[in-house]
Structure formats: structure tokens, C-alpha cells
Design a protein that fits this description.
By secondary structure, the chain is mostly beta strands. The chain contains no helices and ten strands. The strands form two sheets. Strands 2-10-9-4-5-6 form a six-stranded mixed sheet, with no helix packed on it.
Amino acid sequence: VQLQASGGGFVQTGGYLRLSCTDSRKIFSNNHMAWYRQAPGKQRDWIARIALGGVTNYADSVKGRFTISRDYAKNTVYLQMNNLTAEDTATYYCNAWPSAAYRFYWGQGTQVTVSS
């Protein structure tokens, strides 16, 4: 069972995308969740996380531009990404936060490409 992220695509600088991640088997209902990304040649890092109580945190690189949210009824976590730049080009994943105990749940991710 893996978490499937979707919604990526090709967009121009300044554009926006909304990513979705659905937990179809309701495995993560009691987990904090996060979005991560991995650019070519770099490690995978978290960029946004949402606690069970709704508190959110963001990496400095996306603060003010990205918004993470969660719909418990749909078992889905979202990432609204605005004002995209070429530096946001990466494969985006969702998983629990922290993710160490859930390493088998990484899906294929969704590719985001921002043209400059």
C-alpha cells in the first residue's frame, strides 16, 4: 500500500498547481502528514507538514507560497502551490511526519516542472 500523489504537471514561472494525496485505506488517519520533494541530484526533504490538530509548518523555501491542508472525510492531504519558480521543479511526495516508520509507503510521487 502506497500513498499516491497526483496533480503535478508543467507550469510556467509564477503559475500554480494543487497537489493531492489520498490515503485510500485510511492508514494515516491518526498521523501527522507532510509533503516532501526531491529535486534531481538532491535528497528528499520535507517542505510542509500538518499536525493532527491542524497546526502547519513550512520550510523557508516555500513559506508564504505553499499551503498544506487536509480533508479527513476524503482521507486526502492537499498542497496548494502558488507563485512557482524553477527552483520548485522536483518530484513531490506525501507521507507521514515523521516518515521513518513509514518508509514502505512512499509512492511514485508526482512531477512538478516549472519553466523559467
